[in-house]
TrEMBL record:
The organism's taxonomic lineage, starting at the top: Bacteria, Bacillati, Actinomycetota, Actinomycetes, Pseudonocardiales
InterPro entries, A to Z: LpqE-like, Lxx211020-like, PCuAC_sf
Protein known as: Copper(I)-binding protein
Alphabetical list of PROSITE patterns matching this protein: PROKAR_LIPOPROTEIN (PS51257)
SUPFAM superfamilies named among the record's database cross-references: DR1885-like metal-binding protein
């Protein structure tokens, strides 16, 4: 293949174009991270969590909200956000959550979308769907349910993981190493539902 007067071959031009495109993508990603990286109260980050599944149930973007000072101290509590979907033809329920690093775990669900997530004994999953939305309410962002890990038995640092076990009535049980939200994440914050 002959070199052109500029000294570049067509293949070299393609490599240069690819490098320029990659550099543009890096600049675009950096721009989205500009501004205040800390989400406001009641917000969650879009893609920082752990994914998993058991039976027909999918657990997506499961994460512990980040500690404000970089780590949770022994005895402190933490909120876990997640999205659950049921691909099965039968309804299911999350019936129990535990962690070997916490004294207990509680399930909370804002069933009326009124801003109060009450403690519940189980969180239902519709057949072929997710947790039921409140009647007459438009739910956007993170669905109005979450978990609370009560009284860590050790220090838990941002950017590490915590084992959390999820037990479902039909799908069975699984344990995930749930990500503790980093202190300075670059993900775009999104508003939670019902806030």
């Amino acid at each position: 293949m002959r070199a052109h007067a500029t000294g570049y071959t067509p293949a070299m031009r393609n490599v240069r174009k690819a490098r320029l495109a990659a550099a543009g993508a890096v600049v675009a990603l950096a721009a989205t991270g500009c501004g205040d990286p800390a989400p406001l109260e009641g917000q969650q980050l879009a893609t920082v969590g752990t994914n998993g599944s058991v039976g027909q149930v999918e657990l997506r973007n499961v994460y512990v909200q980040r500690p404000l000072d970089g780590e949770y101290q022994t005895g402190e509590d933490a909120r876990v956000l997640l999205t659950m979907t049921n691909g099965g033809k039968q309804p299911d329920r999350l019936t129990e959550v535990t962690s070997e690093h916490a004294k207990k775990a509680m399930m909370r669900w804002d069933q009326r979308c009124d801003g109060t997530a009450e403690q519940v004994e189980a969180i239902p999953l519709l057949a072929g769907g997710t947790v039921p939305a409140p009647d007459g309410k438009a739910v956007t962002g993170h669905l109005p349910y979450h978990l609370e890990l009560i009284q860590f038995d050790r220090k838990v640092r941002a950017g590490t993981t915590v084992p959390v076990t999820f037990a479902f009535e039909r799908a069975g049980q699984t344990t995930l190493d749930v990500t503790v939200q980093p202190v300075h994440p670059s993900d775009e914050p999104a508003r939670r539902a019902c806030t």
